[in-house]
């Protein structure tokens, strides 16, 4: 189905249509196809027990099967029925079934794209007039009878007026042709099935409160089906009028220009490289993705066994976990056990100051603001001040900037220095770590982390 | 008047140049590049748990990330409650009554110590889960937005980022309750945000049909991505932090790469008419799980852009979705008032 909708936008790109409208337009495209004279669904009059059923089509949805698979066809069809574009002739519940049930198209007057928000007074008129007609097929269902009783109480003062309206409507209906009446009655009922659904059914006219507070053109809303004026306003907090979107000011356009210029000057990576990187990333991690590879020993939601999480929090990293540290420095830095092992290795080489600095800076970024100045001073003294015990090597530019920042210390005082140290670790310490016997042994699970011999692995109490 | 015209022309000219510059690096398309890769086999996930307890539409959920709470999540509902669930046992760890029932978002702090929520009250309320006497109480109310709070995400126990219907995103200092940085630039309501894996940047999706990448420290917008034909309701990072996934009312999801500065692919199907409300990638990034207004979740092979599965278990719109941090389970929340755990 070609999408020929044009989304009307004002100059700053904001649509005039609500999200529901977008869906209605697509559904109406499908309805148009279904109602096409040559290629659409055949609509006919069916002879039933004592009478004729006019203007129906069967639920056997061959039409849909041409375009989408059967289950999807049912899902899509049910969705369109639930929105009120067609309906089963003998049921208040709006779904599509792949059986002999008969359906009828809704008249465009009642389509949801007309922005209907019918009032309770209209519903009262409708239910009232139904009770005036002596047709078995028009008898009220239980939930409708309850609604009528409730509305009678709510509108007690103006019930006479509602009754008169119902009488007038019933009179008009009586004058219609019998067949026409059958069709119109069912369409009217289907309209109310959408706006006052059977208890337990979804009300498809509900909108997300985030969107409804932005809904433009409230004058487009049609509130009355039977021409009644209602003085009762709906007080939903979501229905506040949306503020007018203003044109950008000169300053805003200058900002935009600056932004676009910066974006234009960006270096862009070739698509082939990007595709390659996505392929290799997903390929590398697929064995860690529980939706593809079952976790060892089992997935807790399937087996109710939480061993896999206990292993995660234990200090002993499994081979698979150690292997992951080799994917990139970020993997070893984000895993607490990885950090610990990396630190241990560096300490054994007396070169742990870079990592300790990096960890300290990460930590200070999370501290409450009142603790930050003290921590910043401590970090400065330990790592960067002249004569620091754990002196780190930072380029002069970052060093100067940091010296300035420390005078008025904020969370990001060490950002530049941290960037520099991170790059250093990545190319130097991290590569050494991966090549080291220390790491290789962990990878081959030759050495146990807690210095216990292999035979201890079954012993729940750990030594060392 | 003339000057404004000039400026507008300049801005449009730059946008055209950017389009050209993007074309220059298109030596292939993602579709061509993955032509040799096999499509992922049919993915069939089952509902393992149903979390019952909310009495009205669920609008948001968020998984805990700390290893001690990787099975905990928080959900927000229009019944005016935030519930923290132990998703394995389905027990409610906390049920927090809210001042305003018009809640639209919730978040779990990475430490597991706090949760946050907000909505039509235009505020972001922070709750301390680890209070001394065991009671969960409001710790801070962050008020400054002039529009509804659509989304919030913690950077740490000290900082949180919010997005709002007032078209801005804000970085707050929780302790002092003040705005640290305002990120303005969107021309429509901001609907959703996501923080990068290194916590240095975040992305926002808005009703101006664009997604923006922001540098938290520099307080600037680094990149803008367009292409959607309607509101962007959901946004997330691809696990490697180099690409962005968006979901929109135009019934499509898109993948944008940060380094190529452009759209890589669109996830769409003629049989899908309803808007995307929420999305989450699987741990490897190979799968994209997206929740739609038609009550279903569709599972996409992210590289081949084809549907490989459907989760049909909710009786009303799927409003939120999340994959746990270890990738073991997916949680969906719906207007039908239930949360379901799938894998």
From TrEMBL, chain A:
InterPro entries, A to Z: DEP_dom, G-protein_gamma-like_dom, GGL_sf, RGS, RGS6/7/9/11, RGS6/7/9/11_DHEX_sf, RGS_DHEX, RGS_sf
Gene3D superfamilies: 1.10.1240.60, Regulator of G-protein Signalling 4, domain 2, Transducin (heterotrimeric G protein), gamma chain, Winged helix-like DNA-binding domain superfamily/Winged helix DNA-binding domain
Domain of life: Eukaryota
Membrane is among the record's keywords: yes
Residue span(s) of domain RGS: 328-443
Record key words, sorted: Cell membrane, Cytoplasm, Membrane, Signal transduction inhibitor
Compartments where found: Cell membrane; Cytoplasm, Cytosol; Membrane
Keyword field contains Cell membrane: yes
Molecular-function GO terms, alphabetical: GTPase activator activity
One family name in Pfam for this protein: G-gamma
Gene Ontology CC annotation, any one: cytosol
GO BP field: G protein-coupled receptor signaling pathway; intracellular signal transduction; negative regulation of signal transduction; regulation of G protein-coupled receptor signaling pathway
Protein name: RGS domain-containing protein
The organism of origin for this protein: Oncorhynchus tshawytscha
Gene behind the chain: RGS7
UniProtKB/TrEMBL annotation, chain B:
Keyword Magnesium: no
Keyword Cytoplasm found: no
InterPro entries: G-protein_beta_1-5 (IPR016346), WD40/YVTN_repeat-like_dom_sf (IPR015943), WD40_G-protein_beta-like (IPR001632), WD40_PAC1 (IPR020472), WD40_repeat_CS (IPR019775), WD40_repeat_dom_sf (IPR036322), WD40_rpt (IPR001680)
Range of residues in the leader sequence: none
Coiled coil start-end: 4-31
Residues in WD repeats: 51-95, 142-182, 183-224, 225-266, 311-343
PROSITE patterns, A to Z: WD_REPEATS_1, WD_REPEATS_2, WD_REPEATS_REGION
Pfam families: WD40_Gbeta (PF25391)
A Gene Ontology BP annotation from the UniProt entry: signal transduction
Keywords: Coiled coil, Repeat, Transducer, WD repeat
CDD domains: WD40
Cited PANTHER family: GUANINE NUCLEOTIDE-BINDING PROTEIN BETA G PROTEIN BETA
Family in the record: Belongs to the WD repeat G protein beta family.
Listed name of the protein: Guanine nucleotide-binding protein G(I)/G(S)/G(T) subunit beta-3-like
Source species taxonomy: Eukaryota, Metazoa, Chordata, Craniata, Vertebrata
């Amino acid at each position: 189905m070609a999408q020929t909708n044009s989304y009307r936008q004002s100059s700053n790109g904001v649509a005039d249509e609500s999200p529901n409208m977008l869906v209605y337009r697509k559904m109406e495209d499908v309805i148009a196809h279904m109602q096409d004279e040559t290629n659409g669904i055949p609509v006919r009059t069916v002879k039933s027990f004592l009478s004729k059923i006019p203007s129906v089509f069967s639920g056997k949805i061959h039409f849909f099967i041409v375009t989408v698979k059967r289950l999807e066809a049912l899902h899509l069809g049910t969705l369109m029925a639930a929105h009120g574009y067609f309906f089963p002739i003998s049921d208040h519940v709006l779904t599509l079934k792949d059986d002999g049930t008969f359906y009828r198209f809704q008249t465009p007057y009642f389509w949801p794209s007309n922005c209907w928000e019918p009032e309770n007074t209209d519903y009262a008129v409708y239910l009232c007039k139904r009770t005036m007609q002596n047709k078995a097929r028009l008898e009220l269902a239980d939930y409708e009878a309850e609604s009528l009783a409730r509305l009678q109480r709510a509108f007690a003062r103006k019930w006479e007026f509602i009754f008169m309206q119902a009488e007038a409507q019933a009179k008009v209906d009586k004058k219609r042709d019998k067949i026409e009446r059958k069709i119109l009655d069912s369409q009217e009922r289907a309209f109310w099935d959408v706006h006052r659904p059977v208890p337990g059914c979804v009300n498809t006219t509900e909108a997300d409160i985030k969107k409804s507070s932005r809904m433009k053109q409230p004058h487009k809303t049609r509130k009355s089906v039977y021409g009644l004026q209602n003085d009762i306003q709906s007080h939903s907090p979501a229905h506040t009028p949306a503020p007018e979107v203003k044109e950008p000011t000169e300053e805003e356009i200058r900002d935009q220009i600056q932004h676009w210029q910066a974006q234009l000057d960006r270096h862009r990576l070739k698509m082939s490289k990007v595709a390659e990187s996505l392929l290799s990333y997903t390929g590398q991690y697929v064995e860690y993705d529980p939706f593809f590879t079952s976790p060892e020993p089992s997935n807790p939601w399937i087996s109710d066994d939480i061993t896999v999480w206990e292993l995660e929090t234990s200090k002993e990293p499994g081979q698979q976990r150690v292997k992951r540290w080799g994917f990139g420095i970020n993997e070893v830095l984000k895993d607490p056990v990885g950090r610990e092992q990396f630190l241990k290795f560096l300490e054994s080489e007396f070169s742990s100051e870079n990592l300790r600095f990096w960890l300290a800076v990460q930590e200070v970024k999370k501290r409450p603001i009142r603790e930050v100045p003290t921590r910043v001073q401590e970090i400065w003294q330990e790592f960067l001040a002249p004569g620091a015990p754990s002196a780190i090597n930072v380029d002069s530019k970052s060093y100067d900037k940091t010296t300035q920042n420390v005078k008025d210390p904020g969370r990001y005082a060490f950002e530049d220095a941290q960037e520099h140290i991170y790059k250093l670790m990545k190319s130097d310490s991290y590569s050494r770590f991966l090549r080291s016997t220390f790491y290789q042994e962990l990878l081959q699970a030759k050495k146990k982390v807690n210095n216990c011999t292999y035979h201890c692995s079954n012993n729940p109490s750990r030594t060392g | 008047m003339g000057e404004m015209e000039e400026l507008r022309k300049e801005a449009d000219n730059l946008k055209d140049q950017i389009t050209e510059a993007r074309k220059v690096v298109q030596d292939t398309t993602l579709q061509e590049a993955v032509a040799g890769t096999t499509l992922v086999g049919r993915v069939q996930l089952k509902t393992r748990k149903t979390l019952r307890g909310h009495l009205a539409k669920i609008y948001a959920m968020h998984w805990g990330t700390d290893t001690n709470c990787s099975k905990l999540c928080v959900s927000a509902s229009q019944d005016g409650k935030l519930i923290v669930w132990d998703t394995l046992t389905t027990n409610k760890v906390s049920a927090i009554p809210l001042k305003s029932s018009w809640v639209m978002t919730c978040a779990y702090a990475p430490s597991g110590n706090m949760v946050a929520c907000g909505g039509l009250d235009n505020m972001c309320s922070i709750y301390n889960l680890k209070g001394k006497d065991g009671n969960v109480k409001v710790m801070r109310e962050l008020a400054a937005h002039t529009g509804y709070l659509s989304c919030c995400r913690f950077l740490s126990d000290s900082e949180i980022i919010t997005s709002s219907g007032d078209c801005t995103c804000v970085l707050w200092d929780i302790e002092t309750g003040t705005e640290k940085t305002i990120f303005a630039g969107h021309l429509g309501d901001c609907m959703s945000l996501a923080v990068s894996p290194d916590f240095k940047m975040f992305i926002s999706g808005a009703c101006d049909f664009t997604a923006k990448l922001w540098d938290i420290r520099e307080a600037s917008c680094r990149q803008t991505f367009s292409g959607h034909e309607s509101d962007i309701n959901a946004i997330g990072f691809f696990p490697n932090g180099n690409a962005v996934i968006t979901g929109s009312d135009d019934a499509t999801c898109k993948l944008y790469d940060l380094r190529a500065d452009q759209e890589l692919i669109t996830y769409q199907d003629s049989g899908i008419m309803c808007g995307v409300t929420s999305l989450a990638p699987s741990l490897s990034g190979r799968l994209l799980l997206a929740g739609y207004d038609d009550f279903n979740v569709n599972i996409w092979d992210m590289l081949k852009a084809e549907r490989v599965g459907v989760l049909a278990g909710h009786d009303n719109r799927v409003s939120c979705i999340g994959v746990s941090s270890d990738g073991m389970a997916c949680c969906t929340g719906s207007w039908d008032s239930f949360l379901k755990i799938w894998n």
